[in-house]
């Protein structure tokens, strides 16, 4: 069985002293590829560094570079710098990027400005986007339409309802789920998983956050992505192997890598 963790943060401080061991644990399980996602310039560069350390490894570590909307107050976005680092062959996506009004609505216009810049770079260099949306679904969708995004992308850590999911899917985007689905009581999310076509779904940990059952309260890590896979299989009433196979295929198609 092959699994792909499409959204991890092994470049964060939580893994500073042992990310190699965490990666090896994942590789000893069924995880064959991990996408390390940046949230600002520092963590984006760290994601690239880690990915290139494993450049000759039979299993894959890849990177995504971006500025998370919650960080727009503390860091300027240099389009030229991000376009330059995004050209690295181990960078498979721009992101994470998007809008987050949960923590601070005062930066809405700044968030939109940077989101627009990231989408522009993605179009220019033809790489997909990893999208973040929290309490901002209408604005995220409006901006994706306005910017006429040419590349595909994934709405990560999806928590919306089926109505929102249908719009996202109709735009040609993928949707991805975290360990949150293993303990949430949000039946709207379960409805999305049940109804969405398997060839448009992906799995992720968003580690060190969103630890699934039975690991709640502990640091999350890529090896635990199997729990997300199990839950999707349970909800869709299909085999674990089928979910693993198709979500891995989806990831490889979107991010253009092979394992």
Largest sheet: 8 strands, parallel
- Poorly predicted regions are none
The helical percent reads 40-55%
Overall, the morphology is globular
Total number of helical segments? 9
- Cα(first) to Cα(last) distance is 12 Å
User: What structural class do helix, strand and pairing data support?
Assistant: alpha/beta
Q: Number of domains in the coordinates? A: 1
Calculate Rg over CA atoms. 17 Å
pLDDT average, as an integer?
95
Strands of the largest sheet, in order across it? 1-2-3-4-5-6-7-8
Residue fraction in strands: 15-25%
CATH topology, which one? Answer: TIM Barrel
CATH-scheme architecture: Alpha-Beta Barrel
> What is the CATH class name?
Alpha Beta
SSE string, helices as H and strands as E: EHEHEHEHEHEHEHEHH
Q: Please count the beta strands (DSSP E, at least 2 residues each).
A: 8
**CATH homologous superfamily assignment:** Metal-dependent hydrolases
Description:
With 259 residues, the chain is α/β, with parallel strands linked by helices. The chain has one domain (3-255): TIM Barrel. It is built from 9 helices and 8 strands. It has helices at residues 19-28, 41-53, 79-86, 108-125, 137-146, 162-170, 187-195, 225-236, 240-255, and strands at residues 3-8, 31-37, 60-65, 91-100, 129-134, 153-155, 174-177, 201-203. The protein has an 8-stranded parallel sheet with strand order 1-2-3-4-5-6-7-8. The longest helix is centred in the middle third of the chain and has 18 residues, at 108-125.
